[in-house]
Specification:
The protein contains nine helices and nine strands. The protein is an alpha/beta fold and 236 residues long. The chain has two domains: 1-66 and 153-236, P-loop containing nucleotide triphosphate hydrolases (Rossmann fold), CATH 3.40.50.300; 79-151, no CATH class. The chain is globular.
Length: 236
Amino acid sequence: MAELICENLVLGYENTILIEDLNFEVNKGDYLCIVGENGSGKSTLMRTLLHLQPPVKGRIAFGEGLSATQIGYLPQQTIVQRDFPASVWEIVLSGCQSRLGHRPFYSKEEKQLAEQNMKRLGISDLRKRCYRSLSGGQQQRVLLARALCATEKLLLLDEPVSGLDPKVTAEMYRLIAGLHKEGITVIMISHDIQAALQYATHILHIGQQVFFGKTNEYLDSPVGRQYLNMEGGRQN
């Protein structure tokens, strides 16, 4: 059953329309990569899925008991955010904010969840460290642990390996693939078409042409072949 359904979406900002009549759905256990040219509307789509901005037209619906507040989100970081003066523990625990309701303090269960997710991502030994003192790869693990505190169902990842060196990039992709194998649905924006082809079950390509379907279908589609040739990523 679909966890996320998008019907006839029109997306944009101010007086600019970026995407029209976009239709796709994401089922439980899918790994969807969103690809396309710069400026095609990938980040606008992500913000719309998170209800951070409304669609111009169309409908976004959630299934499988999922709501917009039960989505884990790992955003692209700005330079200012990388310099955030908080401890690893504080940042990871803040992922439980949507669970608080009207309570002013985190519960024992929420603190245990934060501990579990730090252990899950191998950052328990960093709990007292200041976030801004960490390497780029460590910071991304912290933010991923924070996202996992918000959900065990659906992760939205916006360029999660941006700025990371090749070794750390490969480690991050393996971590995400492991979470997917555990049953978490993944939606990821990526400029890395090779990683998208390796890990994704489905591809959403947006731009002048739109494609949505399984990864092997994308490889055989006109839009997929054109984009892969343009990016130097055509597979034989």
